[in-house]
Amino acid sequence: MELVRNEEKNKNFRERAKELVAQMTLEEKAFQMLHGAPAIDRLGIKAYNWWNEALHGVARAGLATVFPQSIGLAATFDEDFIEEVADAISTEGRAKFNAQQKYDDTDIYKGLTFWSPNVNIFRDPRWGRGHETFGEDPYLTSRLGVRFVEGIQGHDENYMKAAACAKHFAVHSGPEDLRHSFDAVASKQDMYETYLPAFKACVQEAKVEAVMGAYNRTNGEPCCGSKTLLQDILRDEWGFEGHVVSDCWAIKDFHEGHMVTAGPVESVARAVSNGCDLNCGNLFGYVKEAVEKGMISEERVDEALVNLFTTRMKLGLFDEKGKTPYDDIPYTVVDSKEMQELNLKAAEKCVVLLKNENNMLPLDKTKIKTIGIIGPNADNRRALVGNYEGTASRYNTISQGIQEYVGDDIRTLVSVGCHLHLDYIENLSTGKDRHSEVKAICDASDVVIMCLGLDSGLEGEEGDQGNQYASGDKPNLKLPGNQQEILEVAYQSSKPIVLVTLAGSALDLSWADEHIPAMIHGWYPGAQGGRAIAKILFGDANPEGRMPVTFYRSTDELPEFTDYSMKGRTYRYMKNEALYPFGYGLSYTKFAYADAGISTDVVGTDGVEISVKVKNTGDRAGVETVQVYVKADREGTPNAQLKGISKVALNPGEEKMITIKLPVNAFALYDEEAVNRVSKGKYLVSIGTCQPENRSKKLTGQSPITFEMHAEEELVLV
To answer: What is the pTM of this model?
Structure first.
């Protein structure tokens, strides 16, 4: 849906904000730049807390629909659906806000400014916060980021439904334990090819209301006080008109971690002068002193305040109740039956079928008497939700989902199998204290569902409560604790085994890939995750998820975690063969491609249209993810890159003609000086079910259809 805003209305909001700010004292102005902005009764300004979260549902404020974690939503490869989910999130956000305002609750996590989405690039699988992102690809992240922002902010011409925030600007992906002092060094080429595109799209296409800086430095400058990022790129180059917020307590890192300033006043001056408007934290309390010492101009403070109050006015917070179309959304929409149904659909859409030897899946309920459900993630609520989560009214783990699905028709035997990451479950045991139970359940079962992986206690943000690896990052890609061992114990039973992994990042599943006949990956699938997985296991739902990240075989093939060069990273630059490639995912049905064509074989300013007929040749309804990749066929260029997606639902025997338009910039690459150009020469455009590389072809048994195009002259793009 096209985003339409009333420009006259926006100008009016800004003028009203200017008039309001002009009446404030300098001290009042300073405290309005803190995330917990106090009331100014004499001006009719209510207290407002800017800090709220909505990564995959309204977070940290009680009841909410807990959708799949962002990385799972990314696996849908479905931008229309992402907007539908984000719209549902903002509906719940408004409902909760309306109720909170009714009872004068202005506490933290009670506002309409949601610090989501996280559009950082998941460049390294060790990064603990990668599951908050939309994956490793700039194109996919851009498309999903834009639609998430549009879903949050809505399409009313006068008022925003809620305010979204693209974070963490701009080069941020670990290590978590170094983030307060680390300098992420990235070339101009990598910045513009990889790290900046999603932010640019959110700013210029979706008109995102806020941008959050990162903790680390980028190329020597602390991100929350970077002239290059916040002024030169964000404001001057991209024309950003919203407000900039610091990450939480990041300003003190300037002098405590990065050591680029002498103390708090200088840190505040650097942040505010370079374009940071709002401080998540308390250091902007020094703004008054910095102005009085001549370190910040009061005009710049006024500019920041106008940005902030314009946002509040766009949300309708300075208009009488009933003025916005969202003021009457009732609390009863929160985690309602309709929301739970949407959540179940989301969980079904995000699951990726990795392997299905001899069509072992879906399971035939009529042929099973006893089913074993084994593993630390069988009944692990934390493995459903990831981090930055709300509180659902009910959670459906894998074990609960299967038991609910089969009812009394099938006997279920359940064991945790082993601890998620320790060698024992009971403290006084000698270790491996459920191995015999695993063997007994396998012996008694007709089929065994192994539920392994991670949860947000093993991968997450630095300082997250209960995070096993205190930094939040993963040391490697291995299944932790005794998980690999119990998988091999189950395999030795010779019973049919289905491996279900829940994790927000890549795992080394190379042994399982060789030995286990059926495997699905569910990410962190949300509160309805167990129901969705049960439906997929038994064929009531057909998996359609695709990999938004590469599953490597080992971190040994990756550069150092601290190396921000993209060389050797992600499907776009890797040299080795992936275990499970980006864009990969199987279905219970088969799709055939035919009658493909292109509108032109010349790369020009009008781009190109690629069309293909897709037919469901199997006996089940399914959804195909048609992917278009572009490769500049010359030395020193990235591997084929995703540049187009189309989701198509087909009944058995049904066929549809799909057309995907690629703009000219799908063929452009940035050079070392960040000039974006289409160079003369040959380009390969591939359309199909997967990447045009050997591992994807081997796993899917299909090869994309590839066209050769030529650029007859160089085109420099603005």
So the answer is: 0.98
